[in-house]
Amino acid sequence: MSSSKDRRLQNRQRKQVAELFLLQGKEQIEEAIDVGVDEKALRMKLKDARMEKLPDAQICLTLGKLGGTYISHEEIGDLVQFTVIGPAVKRPRWCYFRPKPRIVTQTILIRVESTLDYVGASYPYLDSFFDKQHILTHNEVFNREDFWNRLLNVPVSLQEQIREKLLQFRSADPEIGSVSLKSELLLSSVELVDYDYPLPSQEIIATKEKYAPITASSPLFSVDCEMCITTSGGHELTRVSLVQEDGAVVFDTLVKPPREITDYLTKFSGITEEMMKDVTVTLQDVQNAIRAVLPSDAILIGHSLEFDLKALSMSHPYIFDIGRRFNVSGSLKARTSLKNLVDLFLEENIQDGKGHCSVEDSWAALRLAKLKIEKGLVFGSSVYGWNYDEYIRELRKKQNESKQKEDDAQVLSSSPPQGPSFPKKIKLEQMTTHCVCGARVGLDCILEGCQCQICPPAKCILCLAKNPVPDSLEANFDWSKAVRVDKAATFRPLPYYLGNSKAKNKVMWGARTLEKSEVPESKYIVQRKPSDFKDQQDYIEEVCMDMLDFGLCLVDLKYEDDVSPEDGVEKEEGELPQNSIISQSIDQQIEQLIRAAAKHSLIIVVMSCPEKTICYLRVKT
């Protein structure tokens, strides 16, 4: 008799074969049976069948994200490099592809240089293929030297530069005063970069000038922010709460964003228009208070804390991210929500839709952190061997034993059964507290027994900033200096990334000779210069023959007007002479190139002259 593992394998293969039949029919079933027990081959065949059933890929434009500016060779370069290299380089913000699983198989960029008559004119094939749609681009795209140079060189993001510096020197990993579980639970400097935490810069300020080493006695602080949407179109800070290790609320304040609020997101933030009426506290006030109250060895705690720090425009080196250090799923990419972590490990119910308080979230994250420190590194982390099923069994066993004891006690006392232990969401009579300066501190809360009522703040945000907490520790670690890199634009040649690309690695370089730049010598770049051929038609035919062997094809075409001024009347912009050989050549030669491209190729045609430049975009289906 087969083992349970063999039975699971057979059941899985049976389901895969059945799905393959539904997707591709009986012939594919016979091929799948021929595959036999080769599960990997069967899985790949099923993946291909699923991809074939997906809708055709298309490129969608979000030009509004450019803030009203025209796309230039920078944006075109970002798009081309992203489709060829992938997420290792900058993702273009002005467009995206859908559906997501459908990838672009090839990228074809055709740059056409001509006179104004032919830019944006009517062409039978181009108008049909691109649906008569094009984008007006910046005039700098006409500069072919800059255009091709940008495509040959990939900008290195600031985050990537910092990450490489950290990996090379490890200079940004602060000194550990004494080894403890607290220090082991902190995110490393490289993890901060990988998880997109804000780092000190002109826009992001550090929480302290310098920091002291972490020890077992380093204090814990938990922060939680609430955001609303403003006229900027993005999220801006409207509430922030800071709770210290003993549960005392350091501050809990509303914050007036610099721009007008368009959506209060009340369901998620708990913020209403009425609450924000008389708020005068600014983001800078909050930043000053945080810098004043945090000790130089403070550990900041939160769930997905990178979003809170971005809202605060602040950076901190000592981060204990609950979402990263508790791992229930076993996947490094998945994060369990704070609500579910609290339900599982603290057996409480938060964020239930009846009321919301950022202090409640801060206090919950802080208690989870303390539980993790108490139980150890493995606790709550499947990555380190913690077993979710075993934990649930033990938890239910304890709950049943506890319930049995309660039932026995009730029988003996003949008292009525008690209701659920979850906190009730009811309106309470508010306790108004004031700072020594007379300003009201804290906020009204509808949650019974919330930490903001038990240990409300004692000082207002302005008084906290004016009276920094004395710090006797020797602070000599400069976090801002440790992650500082040269902010001048840094580029790498395109071949640097091609070796690691999952797409087709080879690039066909078909541009005319550049005067100021050189095409880097690489096994990944094959040159097809137009000057090496008898005429442009021979060049295009050669390119079409080899096109399918490349992941990126760069084609450079040039057309000069064949009609002199005395041959006809003066033409309006976009109006072509009848039977123009040039107009026919442009349309027919671009058609040749597009037809030679693979299915699901991204086709980019840039038509340029000194007065005007336009760009056509479409995924070939």
TrEMBL record:
One of its GO terms (cellular component) is nucleus. GO terms for biological process: negative regulation of gene expression. The keyword Nucleus applies. The keyword Zinc does not apply. GO terms for molecular function: exonuclease activity; nucleic acid binding. Residues 403-423 are annotated as: Disordered. It is found in: Nucleus. Residues 219-378 form the Exonuclease domain. Coiled coil: none annotated. SUPFAM superfamilies: Ribonuclease H-like. Keywords: Exonuclease, Hydrolase, Nuclease, Nucleus. Belongs to the REXO1/REXO3 family. This is Exonuclease domain-containing protein. It comes from Mesorhabditis belari.
